[in-house]
Amino acid sequence: MQINSDRFLADLHALRAIGAAGVGKGVVRPAYTEADVAARRWLAERFQDAGLEVAVDGMGNLFGLTEGPSLLMGSHSDSQPEGGWLDGALGVVAALEVARASREAGGPAVSVVSFQDEEGRFGVTTGSAVWSGHLSQPEADVLTDHAGVALADARAAMGKMVTGPVDPARFTGFIEMHIEQGPTLDSAGEQIGVVSDIVGIRDMKVTFEGQQNHAGTTPMHLRKDAFQAVSAFNSLLEERFRNVVSPATVWTIGHVSLHPNASSIVPGRAVFSMQWRDGDSDRLSRMEAIIRDTAQQVAQDRGMELSYGPLLGLDPVKMDARLRGALEAGAEAVAPGKWRAMPSGALHDATNVSRLMPVAMLFVPSINGISHAFEEDTAEEDLVAGVEVLARAVSALG
Ligand code: HGY
Ligand code: MN
Ligand code: MN
Q1: Mapping DSSP to helix (H, G, I), strand (E, B) and coil, where does residue 251 land?
Q2: pTM exceeds 0.90
């Protein structure tokens, strides 16, 4: 099969223009926003042009299907609130190019997918979580974003694009190409990463409820300040995690909402996101216990109320040996001595899809290891090398 690198790069840049924002090649295209739906419409047209049948399920997962059984390839086209042009989009457009090149070569059959809400406006990889049965549609529908919008209401934005469910049984396996989003390949001067396994994640909202009051007249010792509670929780947590975490463990408080968020008011309520990731499920559970104990202690010491949102999460998964082997052989042919096997520290739809079929993933470098930021980028020759590896792997698996 012959990849057309000009066609691939032109499509990637055209998709970037939908929701382009910020500096460099930034994109703002969160799930179900106008830009996200417009990008899905544009992709649906490209799938049709490629001779694929367009299907969209109730979550807004967008498929380009071949007739009969096929390999499924793709990723997601939604972005973080501030994202780069490649996180997700690369995997979808690379899959489209391989599907096209494969049809031109007379096979093997490749279908394409862009999963919805991979970036977790409503949870953790919500679109593929529902498609894979990890979350039921009613469970997903009651999840809310940081502004309080329910997924049930947001997904109505897919409107008439929705055609109905897509049966996973029609696919023989799933391959996802993605940027690494970390510094490993770039700092080693390597071109390709073949993923060995994907870390696990836990994510939940935590609320401290104190007493809103006047910032001038309320003595310090009488305050029930929700921000001070978050601050104390964060410091204590770092101390208590010390004996449990490994150098690869990560945790993040990435979203904090203070009420009413005014300079002259002691904040009465703080709602924040608590997220932690590791390759070991047991460690994730031990960390959860520490988080709950620590929050409980802070709330008790300060006379405050504590509550939690639903605990969302995905366990670590290994990639399928056969699919991974095909990618490794492709990597050795395209980038001899310039590739490695490596774990993924970011979450991907492949984790959910692994419940349904064999999965594997391919990485290309992220310049300076930056992602989930407007500055995210990858050298075009590395993007093309990745697609070449995919094409070789798909031919070999055919
Ligand atoms: O956060 C993640 O790992 C993914 O990009 N959604
Ligand atoms: Mn992604
Ligand atoms: Mn991402």
Answers
A1: strand
A2: yes
